[in-house]
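User: For documentation purposes, I need each entry recorded in a consistent format: the amino acid sequence on its own, followed directly by the corresponding structure tokens. There are two entries in this batch. Please keep commentary to a minimum and don't merge the entries.

Assistant: Recorded as requested. Entry 1:
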Amino acid sequence: MHQFHGGAYHVGEQPAEPGDATWTNGQVGPPGGAYAGNGDPTFAPADGPPPSGWAPLPAATPPGWPVSGGWATAAAPGPAASGPPAGQHHPAPAQPDGLTAEPAPPRVPTPPASYSEPLWSDGATPTAEDFARRRQARPADPVATMGVRAVLNRTTLGLVKLPPGRHEQEVKHDIEMVRRNFGGLRQVTVVNPKGGAGKTVAILLLAMTFGQKRGGYVLAWDNNETQGTLGMRAQQDFHARTVRDMLRDLAQFQGAHGRVGDLSQYVRSQGEGMFDVLASDESATGGEMLTASAFAEIRDVVSRFYKLIFVDTGNNVRAQNWQAAMDATDQLVVTMSARNDSAETAARMLDHLEQSGRQRLVRQAVTVVSMPPSRKEIDLPAIQEHFAARTRAVLLAPYERLIDTGEPIRYGQLSSATRDAWLKIAASVAEGL
């Protein structure tokens, strides 16, 4: 594609220092209950007389209890321990001349390995968000799943874990772009007044790509003023109803009565494509053209059931429904074949849009050039240069024989080159949404 623009201790544990209290589970320091509620450990001096207010330790540890290791425990209820009368103190033990008895400095043991540093350091009270952040796991390093790198990863049974190559990284980036949340309903309109410019193919392949990657809620709507071909190139369904049938029965979808299940009588499910098609009138004698109000009424209904709408347009820029589609557009896609006449028609249409106050649509538009089987006798550089100067991106869609046959298109039958190209185009479109 081209585009312008971690003695005996277990591994992972710290060995106990001499004098450290060690519990049966191997952790250094007190069990969880030995920590005060404010996070400070409760401790006793390692040797020397106990300071005033400290409870005496029991002479023996009950069976099954961990060795206290010098830690004071809460005194159990019972008779008070015998001692000197109130107001008297034990005499201090004799010391060598010139020395004063002082208690040994307290020793703070190492906290258990299960404790972690707090995520807050400013002294503020922790919040639920602080607690939840502790559970956030570091994402695993990406491993290649495509190409030769993926083969090596599989054949070495995990001994070699190669990261994704450049192509796979680009593909993943494009998929992320297509899958992102657009924050509401979005409409993509595909235009070129000239017939045979690839509008219908672009609608189908964009809807397929977005449907496949996003998992549905995508509609392809043929807004041709008369007879369109979107329904002919799409997969057939149990019915052949069109937009005119839906317009006639629109009242049943208005208010709180409309249900998505009822809509299946008017749109055609595309199966593996994971999108639906709302076909235009397929009869050459269907009657009057759709009006701007008809477009607005239909769009109001379908917007309740879909997140992304792709609108195919006809060849008459003066038609009311064509103009109404432009007014509702979030992202414009300009299609053309790699021929001068197709490109010139698209250029004149951009002139019209700019003159009618739609400069933003033109500047943010994505141009898609459908390539022929051979590049002989086409002035591709001139086409790319002109539309790169006027639109946000110019991308090439490779030739696909399946598309050229005019038969219904199935996503699984497309070549990998075509799928990759249209994924790139879809990512560029998503960037503007």
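Entry 2:
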Amino acid sequence: MGSLTTSAPPHLAPSLSTHASHNTSTSSGVGLEHGSGGNHSRGNNGGNNNGGGGGVGGSSNVEWDMAPPPEGMYPSKDALLQAAQNHAAQHGYALSINNYWKTQQRVKIACVCYGTPKNTRRLTDATRVRKGRGSLKTGCRMWVEGKMLPNEGDRWRLTVKEPRHNHPGVEAERLSVHRKRTQGEAVERWIRRLWKENKKANETVDILKCKFPGVRITLRDVYNARAKITRKIKEGADSDDDDDLGANVDDSHMNEFPSGFVGSDDDDDLGAGTGDDAFRAAASEDASMLDPALVGDAAGPPSPPFPQAPPQKQQQQQPRPPQAPPPQPPPLQSPQPSHSNQHQHQQQHQRQHQQHPQHQQHQNQSQPQRQQQHRQRHQQRQQHQQQQQVQMNQRESNPSQDQEVARLRAEVSRLQGMQNDQALQIGRLQIENEGLKFEKERLQNEVVKLRLQHGGVPGIS
């Protein structure tokens, strides 16, 4: 497949953080850095920086064929992803997981420039605070599919769905995806150790390339690692124990680099000694990821000192004076009511009774009116008692209704019991039927076995 000479759109930033995303068309871009000197445009700003990190459209004499990964079968998903990423690194691009299907048996692997940037917050040039922060997405449609085949022993098959890109290729060192694959915890610990020894950033890059052959690391990675270490120290999550560092890595090469070492002959590729502008351009991947205090002149003053964790105040423990035993509370005694309290309570109750509206109305009535009310209440009570007596007599004279209700209830209970017994009987018969079927099959198997053993003997049919 021939190389593409399409220039990258101007909104591409030279460096963006890379992470594999599981959302459709929302996979993060990948940071790009140009390893060779030359002019480049940073985001939407048109300034030129010599020797700095360039965007996708940076000058390069290498032409990449941008060929897709070869189709084939792989023993696992990790093996498929590893092979596809290795192929992409050798052909000028990088891949990222763009989407998982619900079954987790298919995966969409797309170019890091796949899709178009989304303005989810609907920002404009007037409302945007962080200027010049473009997206790496160019609308590239290249993607491949990984699919698990249960019939093939759960092996994975890679199929190319769209092989064409719409952007030129770049070196693997300019792609943060490929750089991070060659780095690890050991590299980060060595960056920490060299920083404590006041090594400059370009010295750290060259020492790490000698210590770890094949590692891809740039000045920007060193500054990002230092910013990460600074945040850990401020949060108190970083330990100051480097005793196990020298046990795993041979540091005999440390003596080969004197204190005044400024780099090898290819320091121009790293941006060393090119001035403050190029140095800061190579070290400004993200304002939130890089501490401004860590940016300095590579050819001038030494690197900033390694940050120290704030000392913790030690509280002097003073001997406690002997404490006296707490006083015991007096025993609880039940209060004894006094005669004066009882008298006061009776008087208060009497006053409340006299203030009641019915009591006042009763006092205002005359004697004949009171007697009339008493007679009416007495008559009402008598009528109520007579009604209750009539109802009781009716129940005693006609008990058939209650007896009928009781008889019906007993009949319902008897029928429910019979129904339950019948259900139990049916279940028992079904179990016996299953047992008879099993016994019949067993006897048939015995007959077949006897026939096979005595095939020609008469009398056995």
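Summary note for entry 2:
Residues 181-235 form one domain.
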